[in-house]
Amino acid sequence: MHFRERGQVVQLIRTTYEPGSKKGKSQIVGRLVKANPQVSDELKTELSIEERKEVATWIEGYGGIVQLKRELAARTLQEQLALAEEWFSDHKGDDARILAAGLVPAWVRLRLALKRNGLVE
Fold this sequence. Notes:
The chain is of the alpha+beta class. Helices cover 59% and strands 21% of the residues. It folds into 2 domains: 2-66, no CATH class; 76-116. It has a 3-stranded antiparallel beta sheet, with no helix packed on it. A hairpin with a 4-residue loop joins strand 2 (9-18) and strand 3 (23-33). It is elongated.
């Protein structure tokens, strides 16, 4: 089983050997949504027991990666904000205005999450 990431979707690909052509033939068996990868009942019927185990292992590993990315983002945010401050000090054009317009709402959401969890006053 091969997992191919395409945007917000992960394709599950099965490769089978064809003796006549002596080549492998790839077939998309199903898709998972990256935001919440879960195996549907329909997909379960398409997969062998071994393939189900592979998919479960991939989902577990992918979830671990997402957690690591979140922790890395939180642990490096202070440094990233300092770098962004330097960049905005040097850039005053339309590009900076567009970026700032997207950053302010994200900052407000982060601040609300920090307050809700009792991490800041």
